[in-house]
Amino acid sequence: MTKTPTLLLLAALLSPSLALAATLELPADARLEVQVIDSVTLDQDVPRLDDILLRPVANGQGTYELPSHCIMVGDARLEGERVRITTKSVTCIATDGGDSEIYSGEMSAAAYDADGSFGIAACDSGRCELSPEHAFELRLASELSIEEQENQSEKINIQRRQAEGTGVANPIPAERPDPDQ
């Protein structure tokens, strides 16, 4: 009889974790599968691009997953025949029905290729191109811990939900006979 709970616990521990709660937390060395949002092209004339945008791959192969609505900001630079990408920040919106939680803060991570090498092998004859279809691994350099931020939209939505009932936030006028009739 203890087999089923044990198997469920084992399955939960072995599956990729989704980092959500009142704090977005990931351990150092967490691995995330990501992709660029816009194509990145580097060469001798443009050996560096700052503020490139990355997003997590849906159902990615990393050891952890971020909420699907995340944007990471990083820098890309040409180094030999590899593209080196490091991240600076992350912003995520986690949704659950009509509610959403916002997390935004610093993130220190670096890109690794499928072979485990630092940087991404995306170069040919000195020109490096990385398209949104090319997924790669980000490894966190340090623990990530970002507190949930105040969500003004959620407050407005709560007021709207209250408007369907009674109370101060109800902008719907009461049904009363017209006093002029």
Word description of this protein:
- The protein is mostly beta strands and 181 residues long.
- 13% of the residues lie in helices and 45% in strands.
- It contains 2 helices and 14 strands.
- It has helices at 3-14, 152-163, and strands at residues 17-18, 23-26, 31-36, 40-42, 48-56, 64-65, 69-79, 82-96, 99-106, 109-112, 123-124, 127-130, 136-140, 144-149.
- The strands form 3 sheets. It has a 9-stranded antiparallel beta sheet, with no helix packed on it.
- A hairpin with a 2-residue loop joins strand 8 (82-96) and strand 9.
- The chain is elongated and about 85 Å long.
Which labels suit this protein?
mainly beta, three-stranded antiparallel sheet, nine-stranded antiparallel sheet, single chain, 181 residues, elongated, 45% strand, 14 strands, 2 helices, disordered N terminus
